[in-house]
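C-ALPHA CELLS:
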Amino acid sequence: MDEAVIKALPDGSTFASVEHFGTSAWTITGKITAQGLDGSDEYYFVKIAYGETGRIMLGGEYESSKVIYETTPDFIPKPFGYGRYRCQEPETYFYLSKFVDMDVQAAPDPAEFTSRLARLHHLSKSPTGKFGFHVPTCDGDRAHVVDWQESWAVFYRNLFLGVCKLDLKRNGPWPEYERAIDQVASKVIPRLLEPLQADGRELKPCIIHGDLWEGNMGINLNTGESILFDAGSYFAHNEMELGHWRCEFSSVFWLEEYTGCYLEQYPAAEPAEEFDDRIRLYSLKGAINYAAGHPRSHLRKTAYNNMCYLIEKYAPIDGIDKYDPSLDPVVTGARIVPHLESGLL
C-alpha cells in the first residue's frame, strides 16, 4: 500500500494489509485492515484511479462525501482522506473512507430511504446561497459543470449542455438530436425552470448525491438503515435527485412508490402541476451522461425521445421526430443492466 494512503489513516491506526474488494466501472476498490491502539482490527475502504480523470473523480467524491457526512453523518461512510500516491508513475489518486458492511442487492424500504434522503435535502445549506459546488464532481468518469449560479435555470442549462457536448464528442454528430438539444437549452429549460424562482418564489439549493440510483446505495448490515456511497454532489433543486430514477438504468427507484414516498417528505415545488415534466427534463442529464460513458447505448435515443416530448409540449419546432411512447421507459417499463451493454430486460 502506498505511503500516502497509510498516512491518511486516522491517528493511532497501524496499517496491516489490503485486499481487492467490490467492483467499480471506473476505479479499483479495496478493503484495508489496520490495528487500533488497543490492538483491535479496524477496516477502511480505499478507491484508486489514475491521471487527471482520477484526480477529479476522487477529489470530487471526497468533497461530496464530506458535505453529506457533515449534514447527515449516518447516511454515508465517514470520509478520511484523498490525495496522490507518493510513487510518481503512474499518476495515481486515492479516496479513503470508513468500511461499512452493507447489502447492495436488497431494495430499500421506500419510506425509510426517502425520509433519509429528504432529510439530507432539507438540512443541507449552500455555503454561497447559490447552486453549484466548490470543486468539480463526476457522474462516472464525466465531470459535471458546477460553476456557482444564482439562477437554477442557468445552472441546469450549463450542466445539461456540458453532458451534451461530451456525448457529441464521444458518440458523434446527429443533426436532429443536436437541434433538439438547442431547443431544450434555449426554450424548454427557461419555460420549465424559471417559474421556480419567479413571482416571489424561492428555491433552496440542496446538496444532492448527484448520481443516485440503487447501484450507489446499500443497507448497513449493522444498523439496517439505508446508506449512500460514490457521491458526485452539487447544490441543486432537490427534485434534480429524482431525475436518475426515470432512466432505464434504474431498476428499483423508478417504481412510483419511491417518488410518492419522497413527495410526502418533500412536496413538489410550485408550479406542482409541472413536476412530472421537470423530472423528465432532469432525466436528460442522467441519460445523456450515461450515453457519453457507454458508446452506442440505447439511452441516447431515450433522451432524444424525451426531448421531443418536451419540445412538442412547450416549444414546438420542425426538423425533429415526433415523441414515441414506445421508446419511453416509463411507459414500457424497459430496463437495462446497469453499466453493461447487454440490451433491454
The two ends are 40 Å apart (CA to CA).
